[in-house]
Design goal:
Largest sheet: 5 strands, mixed
Number of domains: 2
Strand content: 25-35%
Low-confidence stretches: none
Number of helices: 9
Helix content: 25-40%
Oligomer: single chain
Number of strands: 12
Distance between the termini: 61 Å
Length: about 250
């Protein structure tokens, strides 16, 4: 039987193979486009619990550094071969499975096609995909953070931006603290809001991006999770512009 989802995922596989052969920004952009617009995954799962407590549990693998990943497949045949028929699978878009992963701080990313491509999508790249898709929906030019980023003091006058962000964060129970730093990447300067959070980072990050557009002046704003090691290192000697008050 023909697997139309495998055909639909052809652009994704082309981008993955391109990145594995010659990592560069062009292939990374194609990967992000495929994930946002042309991808559906087979996700191995089983049902746990009983009665009204029954819920899906997705397959998770662990690497030698104790990072945990959801396992995703681009074809039904590859999914069945890996599970040996012992588990069922859900069919989910990238955004559906990403929303669940980003809501679980234990998950570091995805492994696409275990035992064949073995391609890892790290958590920050997944966040960047979300930001790009949200920015395009709002007619914005998104800022994508890469490993080439260099941090500095904030760019320009950020007082109005910090005040607007702090006002929003007082009503967002997911945000526990936030820092604002400057950054340079690919000869472009912008600011980065680094957010310490609990639970899901969506829609918090999308809302912060909107405020960056409205109050950031002419300086673009990127958003990073404090759980990202580069972000944590960038603010280790800095004070947050917002911290959730401690309430007894």
């Amino acid at each position: 039987m023909s697997d139309y989802r495998e055909k639909k995922n052809a652009r994704l596989l082309m981008a993955i193979h391109g990145l594995q052969a010659e990592p560069n920004q062009q292939w990374e952009d194609r990967l992000m486009d495929a994930l946002n617009h042309h991808t559906e995954f087979y996700v191995p799962m089983r049902t746990v619990g009983e009665g009204q407590e029954r819920k899906p549990a997705f397959a998770v693998v662990e690497d030698k550094d104790h990072n945990h990943f959801y396992v995703l497949f681009t074809s039904q045949e590859k999914a069945k071969h890996w599970t040996k028929g012992l588990e069922t699978h859900a069919v989910l878009s990238f955004h559906q499975v990403a929303s669940m992963a980003l809501g679980d701080p234990r998950i570091s990313g995805f492994v696409i096609n275990m035992n064949t491509e073995n391609f890892i999508l790290w958590r920050q790249f997944i966040v960047n995909c979300f930001h790009q898709n949200q920015a395009h929906l709002m007619g914005q030019d998104p800022v994508q953070v890469s490993n080439a980023i260099e941090f500095s003091d904030p760019v320009g006058d950020t007082k109005e931006l910090e005040e607007a962000l702090a006002e929003y964060m007082r009503d967002d129970q997911n945000v526990t603290a936030a820092y604002l730093v400057g950054a340079r990447q690919n000869d472009k300067e912008f600011n980065v809001c680094i957010v310490s959070h609990v639970g899901s980072i969506q829609p918090s990050f999308s809302n912060i991006s909107v405020l960056g557009r409205d109050f950031g002046g002419n300086t673009p704003l990127a958003v990073m999770s404090y759980q990202n090691k580069k972000a944590e290192d960038a603010v280790k000697d800095r004070l947050p512009f917002y911290r959730r008050p401690f309430v007894l």
